[in-house]
């Protein structure tokens, strides 16, 4: 008999797991070729998106940020033509057993040499491991890890491991409280400001650079000294997504999650409220508000500025 989530029953679980394990070591792609060589325009776009102004990533002796390792292997909408069917077969096997949902859990990267403009990228990918059945808060399923070995001009350049959970969703309880933010010594000052209806931004005590989110040290000069300045609360929508699925008990989709560029020059992830989701636009002027979501928790959110070009008339 099968489990209540459609997964194999106890007697069939061992056999099913062995079928999954048979995919370990099977390639998902061999001698893949990066669509473009390492190049300065892509490095520049990456650094602008990440807000990383490290001088090592610019100029005639530039190297690529190490965390771009996987970016040079991505295929875009056209996909790579050297893919094998192994990963799709494994995914279909899990789907048929009731593990129809998927979530990316983590990735690991190992860097063997810097990547420089002009490097030609090739790579191999393999299904490295499939876990035994695990039960998580999301549901019950199997973790699948793929490993990509990346070469630059035929020299080993790094390894990228990517892990997902294919799972059968757990039954959700009725709508409850919003999840609580994790407050620690690095961000306690920010949440103390929220409690006072103030949006505080860290300022480096060494170079004066403003930073958000709050961090224990400065990415620019490395100083651990800092103070905080209060944002004026005015900004624009830099980017956004509208969340429809998966539903979470404490939320009512659809809702807009936006990257807000504050007037001070830093960006914060928050919700856009007070306007239908389909009316949110990049460049929309917004202002800070504080939204009480239950008896104990308030959050900083942003609403359109009425009567301003790009806002709601």
Can you put this structure into words, describing what you see?
This protein has 313 residues and is mainly β. The chain has two domains: 10-169, Thiol Ester Dehydrase, Chain A, CATH 3.10.129; 188-304, no CATH class. 13% of the residues lie in helices and 35% in strands. It contains four helices and 14 strands. Strands 1, 2, 3, 4, 5 and 6 form a six-stranded antiparallel β-sheet that branches. Strands 12-11-10-13-14 form a five-stranded antiparallel β-sheet, with no helix packed on it. Strands 8-7-9 form a three-stranded antiparallel β-sheet, with helices on one face. A hairpin with a 4-residue loop joins strand 11 (255-262) and strand 12 (267-272). It is globular, with a radius of gyration of 23 Å.
Structure characteristics:
Thiol Ester Dehydrase, Chain A; six-stranded antiparallel sheet; five-stranded antiparallel sheet; 4 helices; 14 strands
Topology, pairings included?
Layout: H1 10-21, E1 27-33, H2 40-50, H3 86-96, E2 101-111, E3 121-130, E4 134-135, E5 139-152, E6 155-169, H4 188-195, E7 200-204, E8 210-211, E9 226-230, E10 234-243, E11 255-262, E12 267-272, E13 285-292, E14 298-304
Antiparallel strand pairs: 1-3, 2-6, 3-5, 4-5, 5-6, 7-8, 7-9, 10-11, 10-13, 11-12, 13-14
Structure summary:
The protein has 313 residues and is mainly β.
Binned strand content: 35-45%
The shape, in one word, is globular
> Regarding CATH, which class of the largest domain?
Alpha Beta
CATH superfamily membership of the largest domain = Hotdog Thioesterase
